[in-house]
Amino acid sequence: MNNISEKLLEYMLEGNKVMTEKLFKDIFNKKDALVFTEKILTEVMDKVGIMWETGEISLAQYYLIGIITEEMVNKYFKKNNNSNNKKKQNNLNIAIVTLEDYHGLGRKIVLSFLNSAGFVVKDYGIGRKVDEVVNLSAKDKVDILLVSTLMLPAALKVKDLTEKLKEKNPEIKIVVGGAPFKIDKSLWKEVKADEFGETATDAVKIVKRMVENEKYNI
């Protein structure tokens, strides 16, 4: 982690929203603010994930970091993306979920990026089981489902999820992300996902492409 990432994590662990926001303001004054912010937040997110798994932080700290991250990202991304404030008009239903795991920072960052890009996305939350996600997706007639995972067991269950979803709707697109897919670059193909996004920026690009392809196919 670089110095800014370490300082941001320190403030978040303390629950110091004043200093956290001050640091966010400094970050957004830099060139390529969104790209830089994603890099910083990814480093913080990865560190928090490790600390959570090793018991270095409490459940209260974990949730507090998630809340502060979401508040800051939503506030500053929207503030710095005024041209994207209008919701995009498209014929696709989009949803995002953290499968099995209860580490939701990655999902929140991706969701914030997508919202900032103008997309309306249903948030299915964290810790969802395969059958829960299948039922929710069928009920909402989801066209694009973004699945975030932290641990390998959850990532492997994406295969079962994909098969069940495709059985109900062969046209649904599954986009995966998270640590297991970063470590094993071929894992997303093994679990039969349609796309893999390594970063939140990747996720936005993938969704934009899928939406544009849908427009041309109408």
Which structural category do the helix and sheet elements fall into? alpha/beta
Global shape? globular
Gyration radius from CA atoms, angstroms: 17 Å
Widest sheet, order of strands:
2-1-3-4-5
- Helical region count? 11
What is the terminal-to-terminal distance? 46 Å
Specify the biggest β-sheet. Answer: 5 strands, parallel
> Which ranges are low-confidence, i.e. pLDDT below 50, for 5 or more consecutive residues?
none
Order of helices and strands: HHHHEHEHEHHEHHEH
Q: Report helical residue fraction.
A: 55-70%
Instruction: Find the count of extended strands (DSSP E, 2+ residues).
Output: 5
Percent strand: 5-15%
What does the average pLDDT come to?
A: 85
Report on this model:
This protein has 218 residues and is α/β, with parallel strands linked by helices. It has eleven helices and five strands; from the N terminus they run ααααβαβαβααβααβα. The protein has helices at 3-14, 17-28, 33-53, 59-79, 105-116, 130-140, 152-156, 158-168, 179-183, 187-190, 200-217, and strands at residues 94-98, 121-123, 144-149, 173-178, 195-196. It has a five-stranded parallel β-sheet with strand order 2-1-3-4-5. The longest helix has 21 residues, at 33-53. The radius of gyration is 17 Å and the shape is globular. The relative contact order is 0.11.
Keywords:
about 220 residues, alpha/beta, five-stranded parallel β-sheet, 11 helices, globular
